[in-house]
Here is the input.
Amino acid sequence: MRDFRVTPIRNGTVIDHIECGQALKVLHIMGVGEVRSTISVLMHVPSKDGGWKDVVKVEDRELDPREVDKISLLAPNATINIIRDFNVAEKYKVKMPEVVKGIVKCDNPNCITNVQREPVDTEFIVESKSPVVLRCLYCDRIQGDFTERLI
Amino acid sequence: MRELNRERDYSQMTSMSFKGMDIISVSDLTKDQIEEILNLANKMIPYAKGEKTTKALEGKILANLFFEPSTRTRLSFESAMIRLGGSNIGITDQQNSSVAKGETLADTIRTVECYADAIVLRHPKEGAARLAAKFSEKPVINCGDGPGQHPTQTLVDLFTMRREQGSMKDKNVVLVGDLKYGRTVHSLVEALALFGANLTFVAPDILQIPQESVKILEKAGVSTNLESNLENAIADADVLYVTRIQKERFPDQSEYEKVAGSYKVDNTVLREAKKSLTIMHPLPRVDEIAPEVDYTENAKYFKQTFNAVPIRMAILSLIIGGQV
Ligand SMILES: Nc1ncnc2c1ncn2[C@@H]1O[C@H](COP(=O)(O)OP(=O)(O)OP(=O)(O)O)[C@@H](O)[C@H]1O
Ligand SMILES: [Mg+2]
Ligand SMILES: [Zn+2]
Here is the structure.
């Protein structure tokens, strides 16, 4: 029997191996306010590699690709487990895209992507994955803490 | 400044690859492509002077969109286009275009590309040229997007140095003034690094070249040297590249005057200089170069202004596609 710290879920998604401390940001990405099902969060639980991790479990909901991309920026080692009928039906590791498109706002107020009504998605080159360093494809600016600027 | 990396395989690229190409940032150009532009610019000199004529771009139209003021860049592009036998249209005043009604840059570009074969753009927002290139099928040339890139100016500067000094390998280039914010400096430095010049940066601490840029240059094997005193750097200089120190950067007027005064180039400062020294300035200047210097053999800033025409002719004929 597995040691569940929360009630098992029948259907939904488990986001596992989230870097410690990032769980609330992951919740934020999923727009907790709008979710109509139960979400449980485990913070600072032991991980089998000997370290610590956060885990987020959402019932009756799967993630769309945009959400997975955002999670990959906050928690590059996270795994997504899709639960169907209490079992892990699918499992994959998030993969950070080479070009981050349309999910982060540029931190340069003078960047053309911050001009309202210009019909264009932001794009960032991933200069380094650990730590995550993003460079705006438009204004060339290396981004500061982007976790506050996910869109 | 980005990592200097020119290790991609460019051997397949020939002048064919210029046709339709956007010129957004110097870092998009390989060393070979830069060489090709400089060599072609050399051939353009008699045409730029009006000594020879060509109809290479006859029937072609260049759209000049200037959403920020410019004298030299706009006029030299127009002149280059006319010398190649082509024509110009353009916007020089936002107030007189639909931009005043709130039209987006994307829509403006999609409109203008219907009327022209290439687009020249200066815009106050950083990244505007990349956006324009995204929406335009026709090639876009970035002529300054806010404090961002201005690649054709860099090519003019390189061309001037090459004409005055020959190869830039192991030449000592001294850059003086605002090395922190000045847009021409960063892309020029990036390009000079490709050509093996030694770089000395002369500036007050608050305007000195960013540490990250120095690291990138050193990693690329460029010899760099930081100085706060112009006199210490002048004797070994082959090129002295002077930029304007802006008042706005200083908390108070007296501090500005003190600093600006100590970086002023005049005949006294030049006593220690090599006879072959080339003095350059992207212009407009305020008083960082004394008028007396204009009459020396070393002053090349007006030649630099002329050189803008052959360089822009070379670029236009390569990307629009016309043989001179
Ligand atoms: N029905 C369920 N309800 C809630 N959580 C579940 C359910 N099934 C599995 N989980 C959780 O999903 C995650 C992945 O489950 P799995 O059985 O694949 O564990 P694992 O073998 O340790 O996986 P990994 O190697 O990815 O850590 C674990 O955190 C587990 O607690
Ligand atoms: Mg596990
Ligand atoms: Zn940007």
Observations:
- The pocket of zinc ion (ligand 3) is lined by residues A 106, 108, 111, 113, 136, 138-139, 141; B 127 (CB under 6 Å).
